[in-house]
Amino acid sequence: MGGKIQHIAVAGNIGAGKTSLCELLSRHYGWKALYESSDDNPYLVDFYHDMRRWAFNLQVYFLHKRLKQIIEIRKGEETVVQDRTIYEDATIFAPNLYEMGLIEKRDFENYLELFDTMTAQIQPPDLLIYLRASIPTLVEHIQTRGREYEGNMSIDYLKRLNKRYESWIADYDKGPKLIIEVDTIDFINREEDKAKVISMIDSQIHGLFS
Questions:
Q1: Half-sphere exposure of 44 (CA within 13 A, CB side)
Q2: Is residue 34 domain-resident?
Q3: Residues 39, 40, 50, 83: which is the catalytic one?
Q4: Is the pLDDT reported for residue 137 higher than 60?
Q5: Helices then strands (H, E): number in the chain?
Q6: 36 found inside a domain
Q7: Does residue 161 have a pLDDT over 90?
Q8: Nearest to 129, CA basis, from 50, 201, 54
Q9: Domain that holds residue 185
Q10: What's the CATH number where 177 sits?
């Protein structure tokens, strides 16, 4: 890495607190934050109203946006913290939609081939931070932020995603990873927990260069 950390990625289920953590790290370290913007996504609202029609379109859109972000991160001079990884799209969300019958088999296979081609060209994050949260915590966070398009989301959908997240993070071996237990570490509302998270990340960063 040439003595400089370039790419921190924050992973976690819907409502885990990824955006809040990116904001915290950006303020504390002066890192540039790249968010998963829902405001300018042309498919997201349609997807939540008709998942079968828009699932494939949405996943290709996310894949392209994430790849573009990674290319920009590696070209730049700044340290960047990224809200969600390209791996989550292809190992969690797309397979889940396929399993639910919302993406056709030929589209899913085409999507995975596209993902493999893309990821063969890029470096993984220098540090992956995974926010682990139980379903009640996720639901509480989702309700608190009150995004209208998330109102139709089922508990079963979140459970399916959480199961895939746990399987993925257990097998993740592309680089250093840090797991934060969101049920017990409330870095959004408690100052002492914010300090705890910063301390955990400091230890990881120093370990990268030891």
A1: 13
A2: yes
A3: 83
A4: yes
A5: 9, 5
A6: yes
A7: yes
A8: 201
A9: 10-208
A10: 3.40.50.300
179 burial class (0-12, 13-18, 19+ CB within 10 angstroms)?
Answer: middle
In the numeric block, the tokens 């396929």 are attached to: 98
- Both tokens assigned to 100: 């639910």
Euclidean distance between CA atoms 178 and 43, whole angstroms: 31
Percentage of the chain exceeding pLDDT 70? 93
Residue 5 domain-assigned? no
* Integer Cα distance of 142 and 89 in angstroms: 20
* Count of the separate structural domains present in the chain: 1
Residues for the chain: how many in total?
210
What pLDDT is recorded for position 210? 53
In a domain, 114, yes or no: yes
Gap between the Cα atoms of 91 and 88, Å rounded: 5
Cα 74 to Cα 121, 132, 152, 163, distances in angstroms: 12, 27, 37, 31
Neighbours of 181 (CB within 10 A): 12
Sign of CA dihedral 192, 88, 169, 70: negative
> Does 83 qualify as catalytic in the annotation?
yes
Rounded distance, CA 154 to CA 150, Å? 9
Amino acid at site 34 = L
